Amino acid sequence: MKVIVTENYEEMSEKAAQIIIDIVKNNPNAILGLATGSSPVGTYQNMIKDHKENGTSYKNVKTVNLDEYVGLTADHDQSYAYFMRANLFDGLDIDLKNTNLPCGSAPDAKKECDRYNALLETMKQDVQVLGIGSNGHIGFNEPDTPFDSVTHLVDLTENTIKDNSRMFASIDDVPRQALSMGIKNIMQAKSIVMVVSGKNKAKAVYGMVKGEITPACPASVLQLHPFVTVVCDKEAASLL
Ligand code: GLP
Fold it and tell me: The whole model's pTM is what?
């Protein structure tokens, strides 16, 4: 696991974006695994800036996202489908038909998970972007999710509901369930870029990088992956 410690969020975002941009430049047909949350927003802004200034093209790039809230349609402004358009896709020349997320409003969650798993089998991510929850979750794989899990329906923990409530008008509006790629789907990526910033993530970062490899800290599984780059600011790295 390679750990790059940066001065701040801006430098973290530039460094992480450069890794992804280089992958796309080397392989215009790259498959990008993408994440939501506030951590990758700056990374995505740098990718858009590079696309506009240097013409890096995403015309033939395909994407798969980690997760989606259950019950939110793609046009709901808190859905991850909406987030991805607003924070990345609308700023690139990507064909929206090449972008994939689990559908949170599918009538049958089990069927939707099966569909997404079958899709992921045909789409091995060249790079998977990740953030980390303060309890060490990746995607929405909460503590004690088995390492061999695939896309599944998740009951969100109180901790995650509270963390994510800042994006919603009230905590009551936060969906209680999500569909998430499993840990096995994440680990199939050829490479992984984890972006982390802030002191509230320091404990989770310690667990991921130096802690015991255990489902109690889902991100610790990344110690078993051969190509992981953690780009974190010095506050997130403060316990390393
Ligand atoms: C959510 C997402 C995760 C993300 C985490 C951290 O729970 N499902 O993929 O990593 O939040 O979010 P943030 O980057 O906003 O701290």
Answer: 0.97
Protein residue with its CA nearest to atom 13 in ligand 1: 37
- Which structural domain range is residue 96 located in? 2-211
For ligand 1, pick from 155, 164, 181, 197 the residue to mutate: most ligand atoms within 8 Å of CB: 164
Q: How far apart are CA 112 and CA 135, in angstroms?
A: 27
Read off the tokens for 15.
């460094």
Q: Which of the residues 50, 112, 126, 137 is marked catalytic?
A: 137
Q: What is the pLDDT of residues 36-50, one digit of tens each?
A: 999 999 999 999 999
Domain count, the chain: 1
Here the CATH number for the domain that contains residue 32 is 3.40.50.1360
Enumerate residues 6+ apart whose C-beta is below 8 A from 217. 136, 143, 204, 207, 208, 211
Rounded average pLDDT over 163-191:
96
pLDDT per residue as tens digits for the range 97-144? 999 999 999 999 999 999 999 999 999 999 999 999 999 999 999 999
Is 213 in a helix, a strand, or coil? coil
Q: Ligand 1 atom closest to Cα of 195?
A: 14
Look at residue 184 in the predicted model and tell me its pLDDT. Answer: 98
**237 domain-assigned:** no
Pocket of ligand 1 (CB under 6 A): 35-39, 66-67, 131-133, 139-140, 160, 164
